[in-house]
Design a protein that fits this description.
Length: about 120
């Protein structure tokens, strides 16, 4: 049986301030401690990841991601307190939305055509 998923995007003007991909990027940054390692883990370019971070940082009142300059100890990247809060609240919102539409989504999924196996 196929499953329908709800994907929520939060817009700020013409920018997508938060969406599933940006949430995954924030989680990967928290896990790996750098934008480049997070990008590698997600299979995206560093440039793409950096542009997504820039969009998130300008879309919220406070930056979600903070970068640390390199040096003997090396650089790094971390989520700020607002970044951790936004990620947690976004994931909670998505879970609530998915639960709220579960029954209707299951009914719609039954109407989907079966895709041929690869």
């Amino acid at each position: 049986m196929q499953r329908l998923e709800v994907k929520i995007r939060l817009h700020n003007g013409s920018d997508i301030a938060m969406g599933p991909g940006k949430a995954d990027l924030l989680a990967a940054i928290a896990q790996h401690g750098s934008i480049s390692a997070a990008a590698r883990a997600l299979g995206m370019s560093y440039r793409r990841a950096w542009l997504l971070v820039e969009t998130m940082n300008r879309s919220f009142r406070e930056p979600l991601v903070s970068t640390l300059a390199g040096g003997k100890q090396g650089g790094g990247t971390r989520l700020t307190a607002p970044g951790e809060q936004v990620l947690q609240r976004y994931r909670a919102l998505c879970a609530k939305a998915q639960a709220a539409v579960q029954d209707d989504a299951a009914l719609l999924a039954e109407l989907l055509a079966e895709l041929p196996a690869c």
